Write the structure tokens for this entry.
Amino acid sequence: MTTSTTFFVIYNNTSRYGVEGLRPRVMWTFDKTIIEAAAFEMNRRGESLENMAGIEWIEDADGNMTPARNLTYDEVLALSIENLGDDGRMYTTFATDAAGASAFIETAEDNGMGDEARAIVEKFNS
């Protein structure tokens, strides 16, 4: 059985360069959900985490292109977070321990969402 890592997140679905600008939101989510969301986006655009990481593609014996090496799980998660924060968007994760919760709330306060962040932390910890 694989355990999931949970994160507090401050995110924005639209670009800071768009008409609406940044309108951040807060939530908590699992590492697997972050990876799935990034994979969905990248598949729609025809991109890959391997390309983001600069990994070379090689042709195997059957003529198929495969990455020269596999990404580690930590690399997949970090690249997924980076992808979800690209194009002027915001996607910042925080650990769910006491230090992470404090940083999450502080950063949320800087973005006008302190009450929402405190409510999420309280609910998460109950």
